Amino acid sequence: MSFEGLMVSVSGVRGRVGEALTPEVACQFAAAFGAFSIGRSSSRTIVVGRDSRVSGPMFHRAVVSALQSVGADVLDIGMAPTPTVQLAVEHHHAAGGLAITASHNPVEWNALKFIGSSGLFLDAAEGAEMRRFLEQAIPRATWEKLGVVHADTEAIRQHIDAILALPFIDVEGIRRRGYHVALDTCHGAGVTIFPALLERLGCRVSAINLEPHGRFHRPPEPVAENLGELETLVRTSGAVVGFATDPDVDRLALVSNEGVAIGEDYTLALAARVILRQKRGPVVTNLSTSRIVADIAAEAGCELILAPVGEVNVAVKMRSVGAVVGGEGNGGVILPDLHLGRDAPLAAALILQLLHESNGTLSAVIAQYPRYQIVKDKLDRPNAPLDTVYRTLREAFADAVVDTQDGLRLTWPDRWVHVRPSGTEPIVRVIAEAPTEEEARELVRRCRAPLDALSA
Q: Which one of 239, 278, 340, 455 has the fewest beta carbons within 10 angstroms of its own beta carbon?
């Protein structure tokens, strides 16, 4: 099967709707995933959920039919966060899960994310094995062995229950605070869970962009430059914190009580602070995460371990080293006590717990730590191999500590830069962090030069 125009990553496939990604393509991948999953499990159940994208219902119908065609029973949880799909796989001991979402990609994209029976996304080996089904005749079920479809209307409630049952969260203490929270779900699936979660935590909510129609009026990635509306809402409403999530609700960004987006890297750092004060152990994050996470780990006397970018890479590393908390610097928090997946509702509950414990403001907590300036850039992926770029950069920065787990990361005592091809878009990402924005931008500029030369 041709993958031309598709972004095929470790555990999923994404593309522009009506171009590379069509219902026919989705059917082929879903059928392959269904055959792969039920062939290695005692269960025949596949959990299916989707985000709010306009193309979601179309792909949902295609995916459900494809799964039935290989004899898989579908547990349909409808529009729901991706972490809810992961938790439902674990809860029902399903053979796997399929989330229909392009996460933070623009509105014209959609994707299929493949979840294994453990609730983790497929790793590289599993993804390769699954795709082998695309290269052969996919085993279809005859009429009497077709899969059936059941609806699960309790998955989101069970997700909230699981968060509020965590020993790290003082539900009654938070409720007594009666926090005023601002919320921006960017017309995504967050509306299915965030209002209910915040209500159970006793919060008063001022919200924008709750309608889950998937017509994103701004770039849906919850990075600081996209959160102007939420910053204004926090300032005008007097909220103590602003929460912004991406369309599939696995990433959370924060706006402080002063109405300033503080950068999505702080979500993991502050959530980790809550966990590490109650439970010590390793912290795992990816190579593109701010040094603030290292500062939080060091404060608790805990080890920080770096993993390649990608949720499954972080989750697998967390499982192997027995990490107590981890995630990614894009606002993704992973807590093994809940499940090994990024979870924005969990992150929000932990931030409210932080405010409760500190008995202060978010800006006051942040002021206790060093400030770093992180600059993120991207450019079209060149046709030439990136090895030449990496070699040039290693020679130019001979005094740096080198990490080649995922592209090239160069590290110094007070700064770092990471150059890697994206697994979700046809681009190369260049991310740098330094004590000042000017120094971070200079690192990015010097790393871009050989990439620009290849693209010329």
A: 278
Q: Say how far apart CA 383 and CA 398 lie, in whole Å.
A: 26
Nearest by Cα to 146 from 35, 69, 60: 69
CB 256 within 8 A of CB 355: no
What is the Cβ-side half-sphere exposure of residue 96, based on CA atoms within 13 angstroms?
27
Read off the tokens for 287: 């190579």
DSSP helix/strand/coil, 87: helix
94, two tokens: 């399903």
The fourth-level CATH superfamily of domain 7-153 is Alpha-D-Glucose-1,6-Bisphosphate, subunit A, domain 3 (3.40.120.10)
Q: Where are the alpha helices (DSSP H) in 39-188?
A: 56-69, 82-91, 124-131, 155-164, 171-177
Helices (H), 245-343: 265-276, 291-299, 311-321
What would the two tokens of residue 15 be? Answer: 């593309």
Q: Is the dihedral of CA 274, 296, 311, 198 positive or negative?
A: positive
Tokens of 130: 């699954």
- pLDDT, residue 456, reads 62
CA distance 63 to 247: 19
Which letter, b or e, does each residue of 357-375 get, where b requires 16 or more Cβ atoms within 10 Å of its Cβ? Answer: beeeebeebbeebeebbbb
Residue 101's closest CA among 243, 307, 246?
Answer: 246
Q: Read off the pLDDT of residues 310-337 as tens digits, 9 standing for 90 and up.
A: 899 999 999 999 999 999 989 999 999 9
What is the mean pLDDT of the segment spanning 94-115? 96
Confidence label for 422 from pLDDT (cuts 50, 70 and 90): confident
Residues serving a catalytic function are: 103
Contact indicator for 147, 98 with CB cutoff of 8 Å: no
- The CATH architecture to which 373-455 belongs is 2-Layer Sandwich (3.30)
Placement of tokens 């869970």 in the chain: 193
